[in-house]
Design a protein that fits this description.
EC number (chains A, B): 3.6.3.14
Distance between the termini of chain A: 29 Å
Strand order of the largest sheet of chain A: 1-2
Number of strands of chain A: 2
Helix content of chain A: 55-70%
Subcellular location (chains A, B): Cell membrane
GO molecular function (chains A, B): hydrolase activity; monoatomic cation transmembrane transporter activity
Radius of gyration of chain A: 22 Å
Number of domains of chain A: 1
Strand content of chain A: under 5%
Structural class of chain A: mainly alpha
Largest interface: A-B, 91 and 91 residues
Oligomer: homodimer
Bound molecules: potassium ion
Keywords (chains A, B): Cell membrane, Hydrolase, Ion transport, Membrane, Transmembrane, Transmembrane helix, Transport
Largest sheet of chain A: 2 strands, antiparallel
InterPro entries (chains A, B): Cat_transpt (IPR003445)
Order of helices and strands of chain A: HHHHHHHHHHHEEHHH
């Protein structure tokens, strides 16, 4: 009867702890600091740990500027992003796709419900497809970005193209520019490439593959999951665009031309789920825009993707729950499909647990940082950003105390690994031989 | 398939709109103003409407001081509180208790699930019992309060005793003292009486009656509902007491003796669910205490009571959902009782809809008041206070613009009537003759 942490998830935990440990040790070396070997700067271990965790979890929150790292240090961060991203996407895709028993560390019983539309795969082939797809998309993105960075007069445009393409597709949001992409807010080409990379990274491998097979006519229809993810993604982007365009046209976007206003409102709608680049300073947003950004950071993108958050499918189920009634079997009919009571329950529990974790995180940070006058909305913004592996910031993160940094490190880890583990936690059905009387409680 | 607003609820809406309309017109009359007939003050109609809504919904938020009203005006407010409170408690208790078909305006099909442990009642008897119980408890409270107010040197102690007893039992939180009960923070007798009135008002009629029957040995056991409500109430009070004692001992309670520190931490734990008196200024609370107060305001008290919020039973179910797995039938076993999938679904949907309403309210107020620099936590505090019919304030309410006051009036009404209507909305089960394929979406 008790919830159990799935043993499979421990592999993910072990992978991430290893990556973070090795990464943080590499990052604290003088070799990783700017100015090495002559006059190397120095960062504390807590900052190295923070940056390594942020990179592996593809969060993108930073306590120190990227310019404080040498090329070696920046490459370490890029590798951590790539490995953390591939780790998550492979692990979740495998668990989502496989019909059972193929990966030795997994239990058969946990898989059936993740079986999608009769597709069966070989794990090795899945992973190699994921790696090839990821590197392929990143390579195209890097080439395009390098070209437009060159046009924009960026030195080292090749390196900057690669770094930002990986950071964008992995939804990491790390930028070599100290003001993120604010310098390119009037460069629609670069914004478009980055947005396309973010969105494709956020759809998830299953959807990408499904779309690919549909385009190459190997399949006649997109599966239900893909349609939900694509529909929710399009709807959220459009809705967010309208919201930010409306709320910011007289604020942060007031100096922009109509074209740039559209591009930046679109970017602000895309980036919280869950890339974390910014083209306009987040602290300057109006209050309703900040609240909407927090909501979007919480929602996140598609499951089996590199992006974080509680996922668009969870929100889809939550919305369905609110507007439809279940049939006697507890299932809900939507269009020509049934959402089973099992799925409904999992989504609800996942949502509630995520909210509880978030609340605990915000309370912990409030306890540590609140007494020195940090506003609670700034705390919630940073906590949701860390939890959803977003990386947007109102500016609080670099000012955190060591204890505060520890809390955010914990939240980034919980938001990345905890949510994945949670989403795959097994619901064990048990038959009772005794029927207990109904415990009637009134809800009024 | 579509959710429907139960027609019964329209009776409640009509009752409340009538009370609010008549009340606001009476309150705006010169007769209701202090200084009448010589030099009567003047309040705007929006303030009269605000005060009438706040009284009928037993919220307790105020835009003008009680001292701006004459004895007549104050009596109007007291009557509105009493009638609004009795209206809610009668309506919800009737719907919760009755096995069906007894009240002409109700549909039989909606009743079965509110049938508690085989108890059947005559509606007229229920209402008269509710009125007698309410007036009886309030009378005892008024006598005790009058005595201790006299001891404390309050003029008009009889009138003050009656007003505060009604306001406390109805969980209204209106006070004739402009600083609420802050002047009595070192008077444990008065705090104890007020707390007992608040708690008994918040348990709900069903629990009060059950406890009474248990004490008079008419029943051998308390029913499951009563045990859950009493257990949750005791647990929440104790937990909140520890939290506030811990968070405030070096803050707002630092000047108090240990006895007064205990009494005021206890009071701060009791008052947000959902009375709204305060003994310490809420704006002076530490940030974690404010967050906890918001949480407690959201939770509220027992169903079928005068108190607001999403109710302790809903939170009970939400907690159960998070820590237990459902069996194949979708029910969850807890102790020797089953919580049915029907109850689980209702609690979840209720919780989600309440959160959505709250979010909408906060966004609306943020849109109106945010641009002039009001912090978002202050907005959330006021919105949750209005929504949960609590009445605690960080001081924002009196400063609201007319549009902001309209929003809070709407939220008070939605939190009072909307939540009741929501909680009694009917889940219509329908048999499908076609079985649709499962719409499998992945949640990871
Ligand atoms: K990110
Ligand atoms: K109240």
């Amino acid at each position: 009867m008790r919830p159990r942490f799935r043993s499979d998830s421990w592999y993910l935990v072990a992978l991430f702890i290893t990556l973070i440990s090795v990464g943080s040790i590499l990052l604290v070396l003088p070799l990783s600091q700017a100015g090495y070997p002559g006059n190397a700067t120095h960062i504390s271990y807590i900052d190295a740990l923070f940056m390594a965790t942020s990179a592996v979890c593809v969060t993108g929150l930073t306590t120190v500027d990227m310019a404080t790292f040498s090329l070696f240090g920046q490459t370490v961060l890029l590798l951590l992003i790539q490995l953390g991203g591939l780790g998550i996407i492979s692990f979740t895709s495998l668990l989502l796709i496989l019909p059972g028993g193929r990966i030795p560390f997994r239990r058969i019983s946990t898989i059936r419900s993740f079986y999608v539309d009769g597709v069966e795969y070989d794990p090795k082939k899945i992973i190699s497809t994921i790696v090839v797809t990821t590197l392929g998309i990143e390579a195209i993105g890097a080439l395009l970005l390098a070209w437009f960075f060159m046009q924009a007069g960026v030195l080292n445009y090749g390196y900057y193209g690669v770094f930002h393409a990986v950071s964008a597709f992995c939804n990491a949001g790390f930028s070599l520019f100290s003001d993120s992409l604010e310098g390119f807010s009037k460069n629609p080409a670069i914004l478009t490439i980055i947005m396309l990379l973010i969105i494709s990274g956020g759809l998830g491998f299953i959807v990408l593959q499904d779309v690919y097979q549909r385009i190459t006519r190997k399949r006649r229809y997109l599966n239900y999951h893909s349609r939900v993810v694509l529909g929710m993604t399009a709807g959220l982007i459009l809705f967010g665009f309208l919201i930010f365009f409306f709320f910011e046209s007289k604020g942060t976007l007031s100096d922009f031309s109509l074209r740039d206003r559209i591009m930046n409102a679109l970017f602000q709608s895309v980036t919280p789920r869950t890339a974390g680049f910014d083209t306009i300073p987040q602290y300057a947003l109006s209050q309703p825009s900040k609240v909407f950004t927090i909501l979007y950071m919480l929602i996140g993108a598609g499951p089996g993707s590199i992006a974080g958050g509680i996922k668009v499918t969870t929100i889809f189920i939550i919305i369905i729950l609110m507007i439809r009634y279940p049939d006697p079997a507890g299932d809900i009919r939507i269009g020509k499909h049934r959402i089973t009571s099992y799925t409904l329950n999992r989504a609800t529990v996942y949502f509630l647990k995520a909210l509880s974790l978030l609340l605990l995180g915000a309370l912990a940070l409030s306890l540590i940082e609140g007494h020195r006058g940090v506003a609670f909305d700034a705390i919630v913004f940073e906590v949701v950003s860390a939890f959803g592996t977003v990386g947007l910031s109102l500016g609080l993160t670099p000012q955190l105390s060591v204890a505060g940094k520890m809390v955010i490190i914990g939240i980034m880890f919980a938001g990345r690994i905890g949510l994945v583990a949670l989403s795959f936690s097994l619901i064990r059905a048990k038959n009772y031989d005794i029927t207990y009387p109904e415990g009637s409680v009134l809800l009024g």
